[in-house]
Amino acid sequence: MTKQYDAVVIGGGPAGVTAMLYLLRGGAKAALVEKLAPGGQLLLTEHLENYPGFVEPVKGYELADNISRQIEPYPHDKFYSEVKEIVHAPGANRLLIGDEWVEAKVVIIASGTRHRRIGLPEEERFIGKGISFCALCDGNFYRNAEIGVVGGGNSALEESLYLSRIASKIHLIHRRDKFRGEEVYVRKVLEEPKIVVEYNNVVTALHGETLLEAVTVKNVLSGEERTLPLQGLFVFTGFDPVSEFLPADIKVDERGFIITDTEMKTNLPGIFAAGDIRSKQCRQVITAAGDGATAAHSARLYLESLNA
Ligand code: NAP
Q: How far, in Å, CA of 109 to CA of 243, rounded?
């Protein structure tokens, strides 16, 4: 028999788990779908300095673990799988999870994002063999090595600082002459002697037999090319939405992020979105959690309207 839920929440990051917490505390019959371990991008973050309530930096995995443990006392279902399709029908949405169809009156999409590639043809070949998207996971492979970091946002800055405690030298390769990330990180990066900032540079080629051995960078102003002997290249060039399974006709922006109103409602009745998958400016753990709470509140009102 088809499993039926008041709500299915897609994504076990801070947005999805917070939505679950609010739904479950409100008495909803809810299920969480998460492909891997709950925590989302938090699991790739060494520590957070800007999560309210933690005077000392809190480790990403600890916060993720605490958030997900908070829903454990409440009965709910978990699918360690992927949503492949959503067929929208007000009050009776159908979701294909793995190879099982389930039904849900409301759906909260909190599927987050995945790392954007640099865009070089040889890039895929070097992933796990020199190219990494997670300093916390792979940094230790590069103890005392000369490595590169690509990007100019908060991730590139923060992860360069983390890696500066492990590697001997870091080339922070940024395509412009101004960072996108916050001033507090910019200052720390510029003060760190192990980090050399390669402003106005892009990576144009990757070299190595099996493992990455060197990287060619090009100065976008002068056209000058140099080959740097880098054993590792950490790529933090932003994120793309995880959105392959979205229902037909859901409104997204030009980059594929879901458009919602301030109550996390999408254009499809009964379908809500929360966290990094939303089209918005500020992507933080705290804003993801806030979105999750708001989405759950809106979902509850929607469920009540179905019963009215
Ligand atoms: P981001 O803010 O989108 O920055 C991506 C960076 O990569 C930009 O500097 C961009 O350059 C560069 N870039 C993009 N495509 C590129 C390409 N093909 N080649 C070379 N460079 C490229 O991404 P993020 O740093 O991962 O941050 C994502 C979100 O998470 C942001 O909202 C950020 O504030 C948040 N975050 C917050 C914290 C924190 O608060 N502690 C930590 C990490 C992330 P341009 O600047 O020229 O566009």
A: 9
Question: Are residues 82 and 98 in contact, defined by beta-carbon separation less than 8 angstroms?
Answer: yes
Task: Identify whether residues 32 and 44 lie together within a single domain.
Answer: yes
Same domain, 12 and 106: yes
For the domain that residue 191 is a member of, what is the CATH number? Answer: 3.50.50.60
| 155 in contact with ligand 1, CB cutoff 6 A | yes
Give 244 Cα–ligand 1 centroid separation in angstroms. 22
CB distance 257 to ligand 1 below 6 Å:
no
pLDDT band at 213 (very low <50, low <70, confident <90, very high): very high
The structure's pTM equals 0.86
What Å distances lie between residue 96 and 12, 23, 89, 249, 301, CA to CA? 17, 21, 14, 17, 25
Same domain, 220 and 145: yes
Nearest 5°: phi and psi at 199? -70, 155
Q: Which of 49, 65, 67 is nearest to 57 (CA)?
A: 49
Instruction: Tally the C-alpha atoms within 13 A of residue 300's C-alpha that lie toward its C-beta.
Output: 16
Residues 228 and 243: their CA atoms lie apart, in Å, by 36
Q: What domain range includes position 157?
A: 117-235
Q: Is pLDDT above 90 for 41?
A: no
- The response to whether residue 113 sits with its C-beta less than 6 Å from ligand 1 reads no
Final residue belonging to a domain, choices 184, 216, 235: 235
- Report the pLDDT averaged over residues 255-272: 98
Based on the domain organization, do 140 and 274 belong to the same domain?
no
